[in-house]
From TrEMBL, chain A:
GO terms for biological process: translation. Keywords: Ribonucleoprotein, Ribosomal protein. It comes from the Eukaryota. This is Large ribosomal subunit protein bL9m. One of its GO terms (cellular component) is ribonucleoprotein complex. Belongs to the bacterial ribosomal protein bL9 family. Residues 81-126 form the Ribosomal protein L9 domain. Gene3D superfamilies: Ribosomal protein L9, N-terminal domain. One of its GO terms (molecular function) is structural constituent of ribosome.
Automatic annotation (TrEMBL), chain B:
Gene3D superfamilies: 3.30.190.20, 3.40.50.790. GO terms for cellular component: ribonucleoprotein complex; ribosome. The lineage of its organism: Eukaryota, Metazoa, Ecdysozoa, Arthropoda, Chelicerata. This is 39S ribosomal protein L1-like protein. PANTHER family: 54S RIBOSOMAL PROTEIN L1, MITOCHONDRIAL, LARGE RIBOSOMAL SUBUNIT PROTEIN UL1M. It comes from Dinothrombium tinctorium. It comes from the Eukaryota.
């Protein structure tokens, strides 16, 4: 065994094993003006006398090597970089799009998964076909945001608050208001209602029961959305989403509603 | 400043700021989370509220429509803010609203006091009321407004120190010669008050109803413009920015609230969305 006394100086004199480069710039400024030949020229002294006065002067080892930091770019925020997408990325774009992203997101996520490359002239020529065939792809999402909208819409319960005294039939604008309360902006032409009309008021038969509507995003993707009817003034449990198995209003939509997303049923704790 | 104390208290700011929010997408169906709040026109926002009060939904066609005006209370000095203010509103188009008003009328003759009580004042009288105020039997908790005949102003000046804000002045307009118009003016008017808290002194809010949903849209527009102009008159002259930040329309019992384009209704306001676009274009060129 080597003794500690021997090892410690050995480790100290070795260079560190892990070295990383840092892309930064330090802008410095001298504290003292050094006595250099050029900067101390006296215009009145000419001729042979010049040699005597402006003799070569060596820089002082302590005094003339003092610097002040003006700027350090290490902590500066880098600009966004342009990348070429190779696959459909949720929230960013379709394959073949050139988008701007944060450099960290590109280096640590997109580039490692082969979802994007640098949009250099060489890469643009290499993936020429991908960029040209971008619009012909039928399965591609209609916009960068549409996959996220589909995901969010399929997990929402649109609650229709309808009158418990006046007669009504469910119309598209009722669904539009229900979705607006959940935060979705949906035009009326995008909503496709079930074929059999739903009428009311029917507190016993239709309270807290479901039906499904179809919504088309950008006239392309179609999503089924779960809608629930709540009568104004009728009692509703706080945990109505997870209390029991959801019951459909229309018998024809039973299979469709079972295949859609719903929260798992939680058993209530008995006191 | 104030922003430092938020993190300590764990309170969110109430003021709306769209610096970190994204501009609206071009999709026709989208979720509004993370995007800037949509600014509707006044007609659209009223139409939305009429939808929710349709007979098949809330079934309240005569519901009141309210405006919540968010204000920038900063002044030229960094440590000084606009203090809380209040006033009364006399809308150009009237609407039904249930309010209880207690008005004290001070006048010289018995005929005048009879007229005042007939038109709605709760108490009317002469020097006996001034005596009650002097002995603090009648305090500011017992009434909302004081109306005074101009003959009695000299006698009322004795209790100026006790009345303070309630003392008649020209801006409020609560003294005159015709008692009937004076009392009816204060019976039909609405109060508004700016609320502010010490945690965030640069944010103020004024809320008041300005009409009912069964009124014409043009009448509602005139009422709202009158209300906004009245609020804006409280801004000091050398303020660093525009006074009104955001206007929200609410209508109970529906919980929805819509931001409206208040820069279309008032002069001296610029469209904030257009400024952003022009900045973006100039930035791209540079």
């Amino acid at each position: 065994m080597l003794s500690r006394r021997l090892l410690c100086p050995l480790i100290k004199c070795c260079p560190p094993l892990q070295r990383q480069q840092q892309r930064n710039t330090w802008i410095l400024k001298r504290v003292n003006k050094p006595y250099l030949k050029k900067s101390w020229v006296n215009p009145l002294v000419v001729g042979p006398a010049l040699k005597r006065i402006n003799a070569d002067y060596e820089l002082h080892p302590d005094k003339d090597f003092l610097y002040e930091v003006v700027k350090n770019t290490e902590n500066d925020k880098m600009d966004d970089i342009e990348v070429l997408l190779l696959k459909h990325v949720k929230g960013l774009g379709v394959a073949g799009d050139i988008v701007k992203v944060r450099p960290g997101i590109f280096r640590h996520h997109l580039y490692l998964k082969r979802e994007a490359t640098y949009a250099s002239p060489e890469n643009l020529e290499l993936y020429k076909d991908l960029i040209e065939n971008k619009q012909r792809d039928i399965n591609a999402p209609s916009s960068a945001l549409s996959p996220i909208t589909v995901e969010k819409l399929s997990k929402t319960y649109a609650v229709l608050e309808l009158s418990s005294t006046q007669p009504w039939t469910v119309e598209p604008w009722h669904v539009r208001i229900a979705l607006r309360n959940e935060g979705f902006i949906v035009p009326e032409y995008a909503i496709k209602m079930p074929e059999t009309p739903i009428t009311g008021p029917d507190v016993e038969g239709k309270q807290d029961k479901d039906f499904a509507v179809f919504i088309t995003i950008n006239k392309n993707e179609q999503v089924a959305v779960r809608c629930t009817i709540h009568h104004i003034g009728a009692f509703v449990h706080d945990n109505w989403k997870t209390r029991a198995v959801r019951v459909p209003i229309l018998a024809e939509q039973k299979e469709l509603l079972e295949s859609m997303f719903s929260y798992p049923v939680e058993e209530e704790e008995e006191e | 400043m104030a922003i430092c104390s938020f993190s300590k208290l764990g309170v969110k700011t109430r003021s709306y700021d769209d610096k970190n929010l994204l501009p609206l997408p071009s999709d026709d169906v989208f979720h509004t989370e993370g995007f800037r709040q949509i600014a509707y026109s006044l007609e659209e926002a009223i139409a939305f509220h009429r939808e929710t009060h349709h007979p098949t939904m809330f079934n309240k066609s005569n519901a009141l429509i309210e405006a919540a005006v968010e204000l920038d209370m900063r002044t030229k000095k960094k440590t000084k803010f606009v203090s809380e203010f209040s006033g009364i509103l006399m809308f150009p188009h009237k609407f039904e609203i249930k309010t209880s008003r207690r008005i004290v009328a001070i006048c010289k003759t018995l005929e005048q006091s009879d007229i005042a009580i007939q038109s709605g004042a709760s108490i009317a009288g002469g020097s006996d009321i001034i005596r009650q105020i002097k002995s603090k039997k009648l305090t500011s908790t017992d009434f909302d407004h004081i109306v005074c005949h101009s003959d009695m102003l000299v006698e009322l000046a004795e209790v100026r120190g006790v009345l303070r804000d309630h003392f008649p002045n020209k801006v409020k307009g609560n003294y005159g010669t015709d008692m009937q118009t004076l009392v009816t003016k204060f019976m039909e008017s609405l109060d508004y008050k700016c609320t502010r808290d010490d945690i965030e002194p640069e944010f103020g809010c004024v809320e008041s109803p300005f009409g009912s949903l069964d009124m014409d849209t043009d009448k509602l527009r005139e009422n709202l413009i009158y209300f906004l102009n009245k609020v804006e008159s409280h801004q000091p002259k050398d303020a660093p920015s525009c006074f009104i930040r955001r206007v929200l329309l609410k209508s109970k019992p529906s919980l929805e609230q819509f931001r409206i384009r208040h820069w279309d209704l008032l002069d001296g306001y610029e469209d904030p969305t257009q400024i952003d676009e022009s900045e973006m274009k100039s930035g791209q060129k540079g």
